[in-house]
Design goal:
CATH class: Alpha Beta
Strand order of the largest sheet: 1-2-4-3-5-6-7-8
Radius of gyration: 17 Å
CATH superfamily: Alpha/Beta hydrolase fold, catalytic domain
Shape: globular
Length: 269
Protein backbone atom coordinates (compact mmCIF):
# COMPACT_ATOMS: atom_id res chain seq x y z
CA UNK A 1 0.00 0.00 0.00
CA UNK A 2 2.73 2.48 1.01
CA UNK A 3 4.69 1.70 -2.13
CA UNK A 4 1.73 2.64 -4.32
CA UNK A 5 1.44 6.02 -2.62
CA UNK A 6 5.13 6.94 -2.75
CA UNK A 7 6.66 8.66 -5.77
CA UNK A 8 10.03 10.21 -6.56
CA UNK A 9 10.64 13.62 -8.05
CA UNK A 10 14.01 14.28 -9.69
CA UNK A 11 15.67 17.69 -9.86
CA UNK A 12 18.68 16.48 -11.84
CA UNK A 13 21.24 16.85 -9.09
CA UNK A 14 19.11 15.13 -6.45
CA UNK A 15 15.90 13.20 -5.86
CA UNK A 16 13.16 13.52 -3.26
CA UNK A 17 10.42 11.05 -2.32
CA UNK A 18 6.88 12.10 -1.59
CA UNK A 19 3.56 10.45 -0.78
CA UNK A 20 0.38 11.72 -2.41
CA UNK A 21 -3.18 11.26 -1.15
CA UNK A 22 -6.50 12.97 -1.85
CA UNK A 23 -8.08 14.18 -5.06
CA UNK A 24 -8.96 17.82 -4.42
CA UNK A 25 -8.14 20.79 -6.60
CA UNK A 26 -6.06 22.56 -3.93
CA UNK A 27 -2.50 21.40 -3.19
CA UNK A 28 -1.48 21.04 0.47
CA UNK A 29 2.21 20.44 1.09
CA UNK A 30 3.01 18.63 4.35
CA UNK A 31 6.60 18.82 5.58
CA UNK A 32 7.13 16.38 8.46
CA UNK A 33 9.54 16.89 11.32
CA UNK A 34 12.56 14.81 12.22
CA UNK A 35 11.90 11.09 12.09
CA UNK A 36 14.26 8.22 12.78
CA UNK A 37 12.63 6.33 9.90
CA UNK A 38 11.22 8.07 6.85
CA UNK A 39 7.53 8.87 6.84
CA UNK A 40 7.50 7.20 3.42
CA UNK A 41 7.88 3.83 5.19
CA UNK A 42 4.39 4.24 6.68
CA UNK A 43 2.70 6.30 3.98
CA UNK A 44 -0.46 4.20 4.07
CA UNK A 45 -1.10 5.27 7.65
CA UNK A 46 -1.44 8.92 6.56
CA UNK A 47 -4.76 8.33 4.86
CA UNK A 48 -6.94 8.13 7.97
CA UNK A 49 -5.64 11.12 9.96
CA UNK A 50 -5.92 13.39 6.90
CA UNK A 51 -9.32 12.12 5.73
CA UNK A 52 -10.94 15.53 6.28
CA UNK A 53 -8.71 17.07 3.58
CA UNK A 54 -9.00 14.45 0.86
CA UNK A 55 -12.04 15.77 -1.02
CA UNK A 56 -10.89 19.37 -1.38
CA UNK A 57 -7.12 18.92 -1.31
CA UNK A 58 -4.42 16.83 -2.88
CA UNK A 59 -1.84 16.32 -0.15
CA UNK A 60 1.87 15.88 -0.79
CA UNK A 61 3.97 14.58 2.11
CA UNK A 62 7.65 15.17 1.41
CA UNK A 63 10.74 13.42 2.65
CA UNK A 64 14.06 15.26 2.71
CA UNK A 65 16.25 14.81 -0.35
CA UNK A 66 18.13 11.59 -0.90
CA UNK A 67 21.89 11.43 -0.33
CA UNK A 68 21.96 14.44 2.00
CA UNK A 69 25.47 15.27 3.19
CA UNK A 70 26.64 16.65 6.57
CA UNK A 71 26.09 20.40 6.75
CA UNK A 72 22.84 20.29 4.78
CA UNK A 73 21.11 23.44 6.03
CA UNK A 74 17.52 24.47 6.61
CA UNK A 75 17.64 27.18 3.90
CA UNK A 76 18.97 24.56 1.46
CA UNK A 77 16.14 22.21 2.46
CA UNK A 78 13.65 25.00 1.78
CA UNK A 79 15.14 25.81 -1.62
CA UNK A 80 15.16 22.12 -2.57
CA UNK A 81 11.54 21.77 -1.48
CA UNK A 82 10.53 24.67 -3.72
CA UNK A 83 12.48 23.12 -6.60
CA UNK A 84 10.55 19.87 -6.12
CA UNK A 85 7.23 21.73 -6.22
CA UNK A 86 8.19 23.46 -9.44
CA UNK A 87 9.09 20.16 -11.09
CA UNK A 88 5.67 18.83 -10.08
CA UNK A 89 4.02 21.90 -11.59
CA UNK A 90 2.86 23.29 -8.25
CA UNK A 91 3.24 27.06 -8.48
CA UNK A 92 1.46 27.97 -5.25
CA UNK A 93 0.20 25.88 -2.33
CA UNK A 94 -0.80 25.82 1.29
CA UNK A 95 2.17 24.70 3.37
CA UNK A 96 1.93 22.78 6.66
CA UNK A 97 5.19 22.12 8.48
CA UNK A 98 5.66 20.44 11.84
CA UNK A 99 8.70 20.82 14.09
CA UNK A 100 11.72 20.90 11.74
CA UNK A 101 9.23 20.87 8.87
CA UNK A 102 7.91 24.15 10.25
CA UNK A 103 11.42 25.57 10.23
CA UNK A 104 11.76 24.62 6.56
CA UNK A 105 8.33 26.08 5.83
CA UNK A 106 9.34 29.42 7.37
CA UNK A 107 12.39 29.62 5.13
CA UNK A 108 10.19 28.78 2.14
CA UNK A 109 7.79 31.60 3.01
CA UNK A 110 10.64 34.08 3.52
CA UNK A 111 12.82 33.11 0.56
CA UNK A 112 10.04 32.15 -1.86
CA UNK A 113 6.89 34.02 -0.79
CA UNK A 114 5.28 33.58 -4.19
CA UNK A 115 4.97 29.82 -3.55
CA UNK A 116 3.05 30.02 -0.26
CA UNK A 117 -0.68 30.62 -0.09
CA UNK A 118 -1.28 29.92 3.61
CA UNK A 119 1.24 28.70 6.19
CA UNK A 120 0.67 26.38 9.17
CA UNK A 121 3.46 25.92 11.72
CA UNK A 122 3.03 23.14 14.28
CA UNK A 123 5.34 22.79 17.32
CA UNK A 124 8.02 24.81 15.57
CA UNK A 125 10.43 27.65 16.31
CA UNK A 126 12.24 30.57 14.71
CA UNK A 127 15.30 30.25 16.97
CA UNK A 128 16.64 27.30 18.91
CA UNK A 129 15.83 27.47 22.62
CA UNK A 130 18.24 25.87 25.11
CA UNK A 131 15.90 22.93 25.68
CA UNK A 132 15.77 22.24 21.95
CA UNK A 133 19.55 22.27 21.69
CA UNK A 134 19.82 19.83 24.60
CA UNK A 135 17.13 17.47 23.34
CA UNK A 136 17.97 17.26 19.65
CA UNK A 137 21.73 17.19 20.19
CA UNK A 138 21.21 14.21 22.47
CA UNK A 139 19.25 12.46 19.72
CA UNK A 140 22.05 13.11 17.24
CA UNK A 141 24.65 11.84 19.72
CA UNK A 142 22.73 8.62 20.34
CA UNK A 143 22.25 8.09 16.60
CA UNK A 144 25.95 8.45 15.87
CA UNK A 145 26.83 6.18 18.82
CA UNK A 146 24.44 3.56 17.40
CA UNK A 147 22.58 3.47 20.73
CA UNK A 148 19.37 2.73 18.87
CA UNK A 149 17.19 1.45 21.72
CA UNK A 150 18.08 4.42 23.91
CA UNK A 151 17.47 6.80 21.02
CA UNK A 152 14.04 5.39 20.21
CA UNK A 153 12.89 5.53 23.83
CA UNK A 154 14.26 9.06 24.28
CA UNK A 155 12.53 10.14 21.06
CA UNK A 156 9.20 8.75 22.29
CA UNK A 157 9.52 10.28 25.76
CA UNK A 158 10.59 13.68 24.43
CA UNK A 159 7.96 13.92 21.70
CA UNK A 160 4.80 12.53 23.28
CA UNK A 161 2.86 13.28 26.42
CA UNK A 162 3.38 10.81 29.27
CA UNK A 163 -0.15 9.47 28.92
CA UNK A 164 0.13 8.92 25.18
CA UNK A 165 3.61 7.37 25.43
CA UNK A 166 2.48 4.95 28.13
CA UNK A 167 -0.55 3.84 26.14
CA UNK A 168 1.11 3.49 22.74
CA UNK A 169 4.77 2.73 23.53
CA UNK A 170 4.56 -0.84 22.21
CA UNK A 171 3.14 0.35 18.89
CA UNK A 172 5.66 3.17 18.65
CA UNK A 173 8.55 0.81 19.37
CA UNK A 174 7.28 -1.48 16.61
CA UNK A 175 7.29 1.47 14.22
CA UNK A 176 11.02 1.97 14.84
CA UNK A 177 12.19 -1.63 14.46
CA UNK A 178 15.20 -2.57 12.35
CA UNK A 179 16.78 0.86 11.99
CA UNK A 180 19.80 0.81 9.70
CA UNK A 181 23.09 2.64 10.16
CA UNK A 182 22.26 4.64 7.06
CA UNK A 183 18.99 5.79 8.64
CA UNK A 184 20.80 6.76 11.85
CA UNK A 185 23.39 8.79 9.94
CA UNK A 186 20.68 10.51 7.90
CA UNK A 187 18.71 11.33 11.05
CA UNK A 188 21.80 12.86 12.68
CA UNK A 189 22.49 15.08 9.64
CA UNK A 190 18.98 16.52 9.76
CA UNK A 191 19.07 16.84 13.54
CA UNK A 192 22.25 18.93 13.34
CA UNK A 193 20.53 21.46 11.07
CA UNK A 194 17.99 22.35 13.77
CA UNK A 195 20.70 24.08 15.83
CA UNK A 196 20.95 26.84 13.24
CA UNK A 197 17.32 27.80 12.67
CA UNK A 198 17.28 31.61 12.55
CA UNK A 199 14.22 33.16 10.96
CA UNK A 200 13.11 35.39 13.83
CA UNK A 201 14.36 38.70 12.44
CA UNK A 202 12.92 37.92 8.99
CA UNK A 203 9.44 36.76 9.98
CA UNK A 204 7.98 40.10 8.88
CA UNK A 205 8.90 39.19 5.30
CA UNK A 206 6.26 36.45 5.26
CA UNK A 207 3.41 37.52 2.98
CA UNK A 208 0.88 34.77 3.71
CA UNK A 209 -1.55 34.28 6.62
CA UNK A 210 -0.07 32.01 9.28
CA UNK A 211 -1.51 29.60 11.83
CA UNK A 212 0.82 28.79 14.73
CA UNK A 213 -0.01 25.74 16.84
CA UNK A 214 1.92 25.11 20.04
CA UNK A 215 1.98 22.53 22.83
CA UNK A 216 2.01 23.36 26.53
CA UNK A 217 4.29 20.43 27.39
CA UNK A 218 6.64 20.62 24.43
CA UNK A 219 10.02 19.19 25.50
CA UNK A 220 11.59 19.58 22.06
CA UNK A 221 11.14 22.96 20.37
CA UNK A 222 9.43 24.24 23.59
CA UNK A 223 6.23 26.06 24.40
CA UNK A 224 8.07 29.37 24.61
CA UNK A 225 9.27 29.05 21.03
CA UNK A 226 5.72 28.79 19.71
CA UNK A 227 4.66 31.83 21.75
CA UNK A 228 7.62 33.90 20.53
CA UNK A 229 6.96 32.85 16.93
CA UNK A 230 3.31 33.93 17.05
CA UNK A 231 4.05 37.18 18.90
CA UNK A 232 6.77 38.18 16.43
CA UNK A 233 4.54 37.48 13.45
CA UNK A 234 1.75 39.60 14.92
CA UNK A 235 4.16 42.39 15.89
CA UNK A 236 5.45 42.63 12.34
CA UNK A 237 1.98 42.79 10.84
CA UNK A 238 1.76 39.27 9.46
CA UNK A 239 -1.83 37.94 9.75
CA UNK A 240 -1.45 35.27 12.40
CA UNK A 241 -3.73 32.97 14.37
CA UNK A 242 -2.41 31.14 17.42
CA UNK A 243 -3.60 28.19 19.45
CA UNK A 244 -1.88 26.45 22.33
CA UNK A 245 -2.74 22.87 23.29
CA UNK A 246 -1.91 23.16 26.96
CA UNK A 247 -1.84 19.52 28.09
CA UNK A 248 -0.06 18.03 25.07
CA UNK A 249 3.51 17.22 24.18
CA UNK A 250 5.56 18.17 21.14
CA UNK A 251 3.84 15.63 18.87
CA UNK A 252 0.36 16.97 19.59
CA UNK A 253 -0.23 16.75 15.83
CA UNK A 254 -0.22 12.95 16.19
CA UNK A 255 -2.13 12.84 19.48
CA UNK A 256 -5.28 14.93 18.95
CA UNK A 257 -7.78 14.18 16.15
CA UNK A 258 -9.20 17.72 16.25
CA UNK A 259 -5.75 19.17 15.47
CA UNK A 260 -6.30 18.46 11.77
CA UNK A 261 -9.78 20.05 11.96
CA UNK A 262 -8.20 23.26 13.28
CA UNK A 263 -5.86 23.33 10.29
CA UNK A 264 -8.64 22.54 7.84
CA UNK A 265 -10.81 25.37 9.18
CA UNK A 266 -7.91 27.84 8.87
CA UNK A 267 -7.17 26.85 5.29
CA UNK A 268 -10.84 27.06 4.31
CA UNK A 269 -11.33 30.64 5.55
Amino acid sequence: MSENLVHTVSMGSFEMDYAQIGCGDKPLIVIPGLSIKSVMKSAASLDGPYKIFKEKYTLYFFDRKKDAKPGYSLPEMADDQVSALKVLGIEKADIYGVSQGGMIAQYMAIRHPEVVNKLVLGSSTSRAELQQLKTIRNWARLARARETTTLVNAFIDDCFSEKFAARYRRALLALYKEISDEELDRFAIFADACDYVDTYDNLGEIKSPVLVLGAGKDLVTTTEASVKLAEKLKATGVPCEFQMYEDCGHAVFDELPDYKKRIFDFLEK
